[in-house]
Amino acid sequence: MPLVTQAVAVNTTATQLFPFAAASGGAKRISVTNAGPNPIHIGAAGVTTSNGFKIAAGGSFSLSPGIINGPIFAIAETALQVSPADTRVMVEVSD
Question: Which among 11, 1, 68 has a CA at the least distance from the CA of 40?
Fold first, then answer.
């Protein structure tokens, strides 16, 4: 299965990780890895550090596209997160 990957600079403003089209276009799995030094939080538009799903520094999280109904955003707890793009997104797509 082909993989689509991208590096994203996540800071203290909610940042879209990838458009919904990438998730719904035959994707089998979506993984988000926090390669930065501080926690990030993922969620829908308007995500904050109070309401998002926390991914610790060095942590990863995988989502099934069947539960995604819109774009996924991320926000960092501190501006020191970006160096320059410490969040990795991988989408496994169908052949």
Answer: 11
